[in-house]
Design brief:
This protein has two domains: 296 residues, no CATH class; 143 residues, Histidine kinase-like ATPase, C-terminal domain (Heat Shock Protein 90, 2-Layer Sandwich), CATH 3.30.565. It has 14 helices and 19 strands. The chain has a five-stranded mixed β-sheet. The chain has a five-stranded antiparallel β-sheet with strand order 9-8-12-11-10. The two termini are 61 Å apart. Keywords: Kinase, Membrane, Phosphoprotein, Transferase, Transmembrane, Transmembrane helix, Two-component regulatory system. One of its GO terms (molecular function) is phosphorelay sensor kinase activity.
Length: 599
């Protein structure tokens, strides 16, 4: 029940908001819901994806470190192998010396040939050539013989025997040099000779920290920890110097980690990304990166993601607000124009502001106001016509009786004077006006319409002294059908007035009424002046400037009483004449005021 009341209270407050406020409320509600859903759904996806990418970056760092270490190892190996295969050096160390000058000459050769190594490789702490030729010297500089002395804390005899026995050349050995107080890598290689059994070797004593630590520091970008381990498991380079010289089996790093993969292991109570890369000579590069660093970076990414979403929400809200203001301004304009219509001003318009749904409303509003304004003008015109018709009805109540009496007086006067021609004219006029007035009825029989036209033609023949030859072709079977009155007389009148048949050479007029397939076909043809194509087009148009009152009346009456079944057609050619054809249904009963044919 309480929930129902809260819902009702919310709806009441919501209904009081303007449409603009409702749309903005719904927009921000939907956006916030979508953002929360997006955050919930994407959090794990982004976390796992970034964790995977971060692990790949740790692995790539391990690969880069391994690549750099391998490259530097290769430089030292090539240098050492180049010396160990030097033929002249081997030949000089293998020969038997009897003169001291010969020994001095060989020593000068050695110093001149190989003293550049320390300049070329500054990380080399010591360069030595060991031999077992009893006839040659040892100078304790570059030229040495294995005996009781130490090399980097190791007996030279023990070390020399180990190098000679090794099947792998060159030989790497990690050691601590107490004389220098640092850790070194001893790289040794036998002097190779196919012609002598003399034993000898070349060795480079390399400062381990300077070379390998600098290589790793330059390429390591994950801000974690690194360890480089030799073939017997001794750590000889590390981020923390306390691990240098310690066997990896004695540390928390003693895990089996597949190469080219990154795993998260708990090392020293902390979860870390661990990547391993194997090098030549069974060396390994181990890279550690704390998961805390990853989480800190992920937190920064999540913060920026939220900030971007917030900025997007605010900016999109502003854009929608601007669009809503524009849209509602157009709606307000329509509302303002509607108030004008309520005050009776129908000639108002709204400016179309685009091609959207509101523009359709604006267009329909303009069409509505135009239609209302047109209907208003029609009502005003109808009221004016109604007043005029009322006046005409009043006149019609007086004029017919007065007209017939006047024509009767003229006829009796003509008879007294013996003027038969004048009597015929009066009789034609009487017939003409009787058919025209017809007590206000618009429907007559065809015979009455033909009689009316004959009366009009008779009057015109008297007026123009029979200069026009009139030919009649009337089917007797159409005479008892019903028709609209005054269909033919205006057309015949146009032949006299506009067709100017009285001034033509042949001066002919054809009038016919035929029965054809349940239809009455009227046709009036003259050989008058005719019409051009432009004049004919203007006559046929509904509001053409050349259409007269008579033709407009005929077309409106045909449309009103017969609808699509009534036809009105005009043909004309300039200088040859005009033909007007009217086709209406043949009806034996009177046509009702509003014929069903018009539907």
């Amino acid at each position: 029940m309480r929930h129902f009341k809260c819902t009702n209270a919310f709806y009441k407050r919501f209904d009081k908001l303007s449409l603009r406020s409702k749309i903005m409320f719904l927009y921000f509600a939907v956006i916030l819901v979508l953002i929360n859903m997006l955050m919930v759904m994407s959090n794990n996806i982004i976390y796992n994806s970034y964790r995977k990418d971060y692990g790949i970056s740790v692995l790539e760092s391990a690969k880069q470190v391994a690549k750099n270490v391998e490259f530097r190892k290769d430089v030292y190996k090539r240098t050492l192998l180049h010396i160990s295969f030097d033929g002249e050096l081997i030949q000089r160390l293998s020969q038997k010396y009897e003169q001291y000058s010969d020994c001095w000459d060989t020593a000068n050769y050695i110093y001149n040939s190989f003293s550049f190594i320390r300049d070329y490789l500054p990380e080399v702490q010591d360069f030595r050539i060991y031999h077992t030729n009893k006839t040659f010297i040892k100078d304790m500089g570059i030229i040495w013989m294995p005996d009781e002395h130490l090399i980097a804390g190791i007996s030279s005899e023990e070390w020399f025997a180990e190098v000679m026995r090794s099947t792998t050349q060159p030989v790497w050995r990690f050691a601590y040099d107490p004389r220098k107080g640092n850790y070194v890598m001893i790289l040794s290689s036998r002097l190779n000779s196919l012609t002598s059994s003399m034993e000898g070797c070349v060795c480079l004593v390399i400062k381990s920290k300077e070379i390998f630590s600098s290589i790793v520091d330059d390429s390591f970008s994950t801000h974690g920890e690194y360890y480089i381990v030799n073939e017997d498991g001794t750590i000889f380079a590390a981020t923390d110097a306390k691990y240098v010289g310690v066997n990896i089996a004695d540390t928390s790093l003693n895990h089996t980690i597949p190469e080219n993969e990154t795993e998260v292991l708990n090392i020293g109570g902390t979860d870390r990304f661990v990547a391993v890369q194997h090098l030549s000579d069974n060396w390994r590069v181990i890279i550690l990166s704390s998961i805390t660093q990853f989480q800190n970076k992920y937190t920064i990414i999540k913060f920026w993601f939220l900030a971007i979403m917030l900025i997007f929400t605010v900016l999109s809200g502003l854009v929608i607000l601007m669009c809503l203001n524009k849209m509602f301004a157009r709606l307000d304009q329509i509302g303002e124009r509607m108030s004008y219509i309520m005050k009776g001003q129908f000639d108002v318009k709204v400016q179309k502001g685009g091609s959207d749904e509101i523009s359709v409303l604006e267009e329909q509003f303009n069409l509505m106001t135009s239609r209302l304004n047109g209907l208003l003008q029609e009502v005003i015109s109808a009221q004016n016509r109604q007043k005029e018709e009322a006046l005409k009805v009043l006149e019609a109540q007086i004029n017919p009786h007065f007209l017939y009496n006047t024509l009767g007086i003229i006829r009796w006067e003509a008879l007294d004077m013996g003027n038969e021609k004048l009597c015929n004219l009066v009789d034609a006029m009487t017939t003409f006006y009787r058919r025209v007035l017809n007590k206000g009825k618009p429907i007559i029989k065809v015979r009455d319409e033909i009689e009316h036209v004959r009366a009009y033609v008779s009057i015109q023949q008297i007026r123009y002294r029979d200069v026009v030859q009139v030919k009649w072709d009337i089917d007797s079977e159409v005479l008892d059908f019903y028709t609209i009155k005054l269909l033919l007389q205006p057309i015949v009148e146009n032949s006299y007035i506009h067709g100017m048949i009285t001034s033509a050479n042949a001066r002919k007029l054809w009038i016919s009424a035929k029965y054809d397939n349940d239809c009455i076909v009227y046709q009036v043809r003259d050989n008058g002046v005719g019409m051009s194509e432009a004049e004919l087009k203007s006559v046929l148009e509904e509001n053409g400037k050349n259409i007269g009152i008579g033709l407009r009346y005929i077309k409106e009456m045909i449309r009103h009483y017969y609808g699509d079944k009534g036809k009105f057609h005009v043909e004309s050619e300039k200088g040859k004449g005009t033909t007007v054809t009217i086709k209406i249904p043949a009806l034996s009963d009177e046509i009702p005021e509003r014929s069903a044919m018009n539907v």
